[in-house]
Design a protein that fits this description.
heterodimer; A: alpha/beta; Rossmann fold; eight-stranded mixed β-sheet; 5 helices; 8 strands; globular; B: alpha/beta; Helicase, Ruva Protein, domain 3; 5 domains; five-stranded parallel β-sheet; 28 helices; 52% helix
């Protein structure tokens, strides 16, 4: 995917929300959907099972309008978290400009988090992308749960964020940390674009 | 001076809602019982909420109930203007009487009383007089009396003594009702929900609401498809207010985070994008957007974006802008010469400058200047005398200060007295000035050109040709009689030129107000300048002319001949020319010198047929090349009726 098309004066960012099943990826998108004015958002496509589990992926296009003369669009995707949908995950990851890793803060979900993170790494490699080159942001969701059930952000950082990427405690259901995460990943993506383009 | 009531503004066409019910009820009451219910009635509201409508509706309703009532509607400005005109004309008392006899006086835009002490005094006097005689006065303003700055206390108390009502912004239901009624009036149909969506937008006044409706009607007409509720916002360009939960199946509760999260995010991203997209690309992209928005082709700039590291971006943009400026100049120049050609695409394409230059050159060549004055009539050869002194002096003034002193100058006089000569002479002098474009032609030619322009669908071009004239000189203006379209065009041209201080000169056989078939508005404008009359040539003038004519023909000027000819009662310059011609021809035929005796013989002895006089037109057709063709001069020796009787007797 072409991130910046100077001829058509377009910037398109594909951001993928990745993470284990039930960590709150779709919830992130729903929250954003609710905050974006109708005129700026497209239809949110959500393919879910009867129990509201993402079957294929969620897709939310956002039109940010003209920025510095460029029509700027963000495309937000989620992947299905369940283990057996790996083919879908790999497909959705294709051409991603940035990834938000939505981790589940519950202590008992730590292994799933680690597994998903490894899965992300291997799927990116499949596309020939080094995870170190991919703009990545960590979000530790469900921080609103009772403290005895969850790990604190520093603990999660220790366990998951060995590359020290930006990380955000979140409560996606109520919106805490959602836009901070999106803003952070956007900045990384756009900065990478600046670094990757020839200097004037 | 008084505006007439707009027939569309009646109570029947006014949509009443909670915000204006009181004003309408009061208005109706006043219309039913003028002078006795609320006097004065003072209505105020913001702009575009229907003050004028209600004011006029009161007038209509009062007139319907009692048709004998004398009703006047006017704005305060019109009132002031009328007052000043009356004072200037020394008719102040008549002005006061006129308004005191009005049964229902409707005054709009009273807020303009600010800083007009004398008008406040006048209005106070009038209000008192009207109230005393039981006549109604209704005033409308955009603010209550007490808030009109600098308003006389007595007026405030007078206005407040009646009834002061305000009209607010219509509520949603009223807005829907207004939109429905207006859409119906225009014969436009909308899908259900569309007008409601428009009404949801809180426009500050009804006028803007109507503007929105107009846009929808236009959009629907252009796109030939019905608008739905969703497209309304797009068409009207209304930004949607962040409505976090509306219409979405969000699971997020809006309790956390401000509704402006997205705006905040957007502004952050804007900063990041600005930094990320290299500055030069952003500059180019912005230039592309700007010029594309103005309708210029931007191919050249877009090519810059395709390159990895283009050199000298700023220079490239500057060169592009320079080309665009040149195109603008060309387009403006062409617009003056030929408005139709100005719209051509070639003036919007900076990538093909040569084509634009060529197109402009073509228009320049094609744009024939308006007919110029004939050089055959120089001012030096125009003989002065008491009979044309006024006209000649006026001509000199006009030449010295074109457009400033006498505008228009109308030269009147019978045929053959030299009007055309003087007109062309002034034209020649005016044309000597820098950048002068003098249009000098006969009215007949003017009419013919317009007809040709209408025929060739080039009226714009024709108009533009005359509009750029620095002076317009029309001979024989009486020929406009009955030519309605030409009068219309001349009226507009007249106003345009006079407004721009360009000189206008006309000739006519008699005072404009005696000419038949010329519209009043043109007559009044002609009379508004200076009407200078040329009388029959006096003896001095005749003498001067003769001397010049004889010298021209290389005839020795014999005092006896001069005296004899100058003493003859000749009623026009043209006849004088004819007589000299005849004598010279007779002399040539007889191979004798031109003497007084010969002249006497020619003029009194053998009756040589002479021509009639009294044609209404000058008959001289002047070509812009400077040549003169005069059908009358060619046949000047037609017999007069007196001579013809003698001929017949023989």
């Amino acid at each position: 995917m072409s991130l910046v098309n100077f001829t058509a004066r377009e910037i398109t960012c594909k951001i993928v929300y990745y993470g284990p099943g039930r960590s709150g990826k779709t919830t992130n998108l729903h929250y954003i959907y609710g905050r974006v004015p109708e005129t700026r958002r497209g239809r949110m496509v959500s393919l879910a099972t009867q129990t509201d589990r993402t079957l294929f992926f969620d897709f939310l296009p956002i039109d940010l309008g003209q920025i510095s003369g460029f029509a700027t669009r963000f495309q937000l995707y989620t992947v299905p978290g369940q283990v057996y949908y790996n083919a879908t995950r790999r497909l959705v990851l294709q051409g991603a400009d940035g990834v938000v890793f939505v981790g589940d803060s519950q202590a008992r979900q730590l292994d799933e988090n680690i597994e998903s993170l490894q899965n992300l790494q291997s799927n990116l490699l499949e596309h020939g992308v080094d995870v170190r080159a991919m703009p990545l942001v960590m979000q530790y969701n469900k921080q609103d749960l009772p403290p005895e059930l969850i790990l604190t952000p520093p603990e999660l950082d220790d366990a998951l964020n060995f590359r020290s990427v930006p990380s955000f405690p979140a409560d996606a259901l109520h919106g805490r940390g959602v836009f901070e995460t999106l803003k952070s990943v956007s900045e990384l993506v756009l900065k990478k674009l600046a670094a990757g383009s020839p200097a004037s | 001076m008084t505006s007439s009531l707009n027939p569309r503004f009646t109570f029947e066409t006014f949509v009443v809602g909670a915000a204006n019910r009181l004003a309408v009820t009061a208005g109706r009451t006043v219309a039913e019982n003028p002078g006795s219910a609320y006097n004065p009635l003072f209505i105020y509201s913001g702009s575009g909420l229907g003050k004028t409508h209600v004011l006029m509706a009161i007038g209509h309703a009062a007139k319907t109930i009692a048709s004998q009532l004398n009703i006047e509607y006017l704005t305060l400005d019109e009132y002031v203007e009328a007052f000043h005109a009356a004072i200037a004309a020394g008719q102040g008392d008549a002005f006061r009487r006129r308004f005191q006899n009005v049964d229902v006086l409707l005054v709009d835009d009273v807020q303009f009383l600010t800083n007009r002490k004398e008008m406040q005094a006048e209005l106070l006097r009038l209000t008192e007089a009207l109230q005393q005689s039981g006549h109604q006065i209704v005033l409308a303003s955009d603010r209550p009396p007490a808030e009109i700055a600098d308003l006389d206390e007595r007026l405030i108390s007078r206005f407040s003594g009646g009834l002061v009502v305000d009209m607010g912004i219509p509520d949603y239901e009223t807005r829907v009702a207004i939109l429905r009624r207006k859409a119906e009036e225009r014969g436009s149909k909308f899908q259900p929900g569309v007008l409601e969506a428009v009404a949801k937008v809180e426009y500050p006044n009804v006028r803007e609401l109507m503007g929105a409706l107009n846009r929808l009607i236009a959009f629907q007409a252009v796109n030939d498809m019905p608008i739905n509720e969703e497209t309304v916002r797009k068409v009207l360009g209304v930004p949607t207010a962040g409505s976090p939960t509306a219409g979405s199946s969000t699971v997020a509760s809006p309790t956390v985070g401000s509704p402006d999260e997205f705006s905040q995010f957007l502004s952050d991203v804007t900063v990041t994008v600005g930094k990320a997209v290299e500055a030069w690309r952003a500059r180019v992209a912005e230039a592309v957007m700007r010029w594309e928005g103005e309708g210029y082709r931007t191919g050249r700039l877009e090519k810059l974006l395709e390159q990895e590291t283009p050199a000298a971006v700023d220079e490239a943009i500057a060169a592009y802008v320079q080309d665009v400026e040149r195109l603008k100049t060309l387009e403006a120049e062409v617009a003056v010469l030929d408005p139709q050609a100005a719209g051509e695409k070639v003036f919007r394409d900076p990538d093909h400058m040569e084509a634009a230059e060529a197109a402009a050159a073509k228009v320049r060549e094609g744009a024939a200047p308006p007919p110029a004055p004939s050089a055959a009539f120089p001012l030096e050869t125009y003989c002065a005398g008491a009979s044309n002194e006024v006209a000649l002096n006026a001509a000199r003034d006009v030449i010295a200060k074109p457009g400033k002193k006498y505008n228009p100058l109308v030269i009147v006089g019978r045929s053959g007295l030299g009007k055309t000569h003087l007109l062309n002479a002034i034209g020649v002098e005016l044309a000597r000035k820098k950048h002068a474009v003098v249009a000098c032609l006969s009215t007949q030619q003017f009419v013919d050109e317009l007809i040709a322009a209408i025929d060739g669908n080039r009226v714009d071009w024709w108009r533009a040709r005359y509009r750029r004239a620095t002076a317009l000189l029309l001979d024989d203006i009486q020929l406009l009689a009955g030519k309605e379209r030409t009068q219309e065009e001349l009226f507009n041209l007249f106003n345009h030129l006079v407004d721009a201080d360009r000189q206008l000169i006309f000739t006519a056989p008699a005072h404009p107000n005696t000419l038949e078939g010329i519209e009043e508005r043109i007559v009044s404008r002609l009379e508004g300048g200076l009407v200078a009359e040329i009388a029959e040539p006096d003896k001095d003038l005749r003498r001067g002319m003769l001397e010049r004519l004889l010298t021209q023909h290389r005839v020795p000027v014999e005092p006896a001949l001069l005296d004899y000819l100058a003493d003859r009662p000749i009623d026009s310059v043209r006849n004088l020319t004819g007589i000299v011609q005849r004598i010279i021809e007779a002399a040539a035929a007889q191979d004798a010198p031109v003497t007084a005796g010969l002249a006497r013989e020619v003029l009194e002895g053998a009756p040589v047929p002479r021509r009639t006089t009294g044609l209404r037109t000058s008959g001289i057709v002047v070509s812009s090349a400077g040549g003169v063709r005069s059908r009358e001069k060619m046949v000047w020796d037609w017999p007069t009726s007196g001579d013809r009787v003698i001929e017949d007797l023989r």
